[in-house]
Structures are given as C-alpha cells and as structure tokens.
C-alpha cells in the first residue's frame, strides 16, 4: 500500500448497492470510521476474502474534498486498499457470538473519529482469549475488556475510592458499582467486592496490563458481571443487547 495505512478491525458492514458495502471500522489511529468499499460484493473482488470480522487489517482510505464542518466527522470515506495483517483464525461457535457482543459495545458506545489506542490494543488481545475454549477464561477476558472500555470513555470511577465521598474503601466492607452513584457500600443482597479486589482491578488498569486485569477479574467474576452489565445497560439506555439476547436464546435451545 502506497497511501497512509491504518490498523483496523471490521465491526459491521451494510449493503450500499448491489456491488458495494459501507464498512464500520475500528482503527487504532482514528477510532471508528465509516468507509465505502466499492465493488466489494462482486464475485471476483479480492476484498471479499479480506473484509471479515475479527481479522486484523491494514487499510487505506481517503477523505472527500472540502467536507463541510458539520459533516466531516460523519463522512463516509472511500476505501482505497485493505489487506490481512495476520492474527488468529476466524472465530467460530460461541466465540463468534461473544466477539459480536464486543463489536456491538464498540458500535454503540464509541463516537466516530475518537481514537482509543489502548482500547484497540485491548480488543486485539481479547480476541485470542475468546477462541481458547475456556469458559472461565472467556468470562475474565470479557470483564477485563468491559473495564477498559468503560475507563476509556470516561464512565468508570476510581475503583479505590468511595465515589460520593472520595474516601478510600473500607476494609471488610463490600462495595458495589452503581450506574447513578459510582462505587458505594453494598446493601444487603447487592453484588459487591472487597476493597482488595477493587484495588487489584484498579492497579491493573493503571498499569495498562490487560493480562493482569484478566487475572484480577477471575476471583471476582460472580460479583463483577452483574455490576458491569448494569453499568453498560444504563449508558446504552437498553436492558438487552442484541447479541446477548441471541446468546440466551441459543442456550435455551441447547437445553
């Protein structure tokens, strides 16, 4: 590729015409961008085997001339080139649905052209964990990814302080993460974690160490999952994500 290239993953694709697609890409350098892949649906197009979800790509795209200030951020840019950039094989089975869950979070929570390199790296590092086939490991990887996502978009409070008072968490007291209050002492029956567990999560976030964040999530999975789910759904303004609902329906069919 001769033009400037960007590391990217395909989040979603839309039909544009009988032969072309609109792609929603997650790039490391520019965040979410929309590009038009002309001719990508044609049988002989080389892009058909390249533009697949969960495959790391190197893409080149160009902007239209003299875009207006109001339309610049939302502009659909022409895709100039795309090629595979290595990485694991395509996800399958349950891992495929879990990957689409991550994509749905990014699509709904990230603004266009708002770069988050640390989140891009976390996404890339989480994909291999989804394909490992270890259910507990997958859950820990997802919780770690959700924590990084929430931190990156400014929705995660400091996990070593009581949010309303900004005082350190008290030892021996469970604290819960609430969408409208932050981190507060848990009431009886509410999910919560001890101060030491929250501190381990915060330390891993501060160090930008995804592997450490996954390890810190492992012993906290039972409490962490409902708290993060409530926080995400609150900011998504929906009680159910499309991919999560599909996973539940498939699990019911298997039973």
Report on this model:
- The C terminus is likely disordered.
- The protein has 255 residues and is an alpha+beta fold.
- Helix 2 runs antiparallel to helix 3 and helix 4 runs antiparallel to helix 5.
- The protein is 38% helix and 20% strand.
- The chain has 2 domains: 79 residues, OB fold (Dihydrolipoamide Acetyltransferase, E2P); 161 residues, de novo design (two linked rop proteins).
Helix and strand layout, with pairings?
Layout: E1 6-15, E2 21-27, E3 31-37, E4 57-61, E5 76-84, H1 94-109, H2 117-130, H3 135-152, E6 161-162, E7 167-168, E8 175-178, E9 182-185, H4 195-206, H5 210-217, H6 221-236, H7 242-254
Parallel strand pairs: 3-5
Antiparallel strand pairs: 1-2, 1-4, 2-3, 4-5, 6-7, 8-9
Helix pairs in contact: 1-7, 2-3, 3-5, 3-6, 4-5
Write a compact overview of the structure shown.
The chain has 255 residues and is of the alpha+beta class. It is built from seven helices and nine strands; from the N terminus they run βββββαααββββαααα. Strand 8 and strand 9 form a beta hairpin.
Question: What attributes characterize this protein structure?
Answer:
2 domains, two-stranded antiparallel ribbon, de novo design (two linked rop proteins), disordered C terminus, 20% strand, OB fold (Dihydrolipoamide Acetyltransferase, E2P), alpha+beta, 7 helices, 255 residues, 9 strands, five-stranded mixed beta barrel, 38% helix
What is the overall shape?
Answer: elongated
Rg over C-alpha atoms, rounded to the nearest angstrom? 20 Å
CATH architecture of the largest domain: Up-down Bundle
Number of strands: 9
- Average the pLDDT over all residues and give the rounded result: 87
Number of domains: 2
Sequence stretches where pLDDT stays below 50 over 5 or more residues:
65-73, 248-255
Helical coverage, percent range:
25-40%
β-strand percent reads 15-25%
What is the tally of helical segments? 7
- Topology as H/E string? EEEEEHHHEEEEHHHH
Instruction: Give the CATH level 1 class of the largest domain.
Output: Mainly Alpha
Q: How is the main sheet built?
A: 5 strands, mixed, barrel
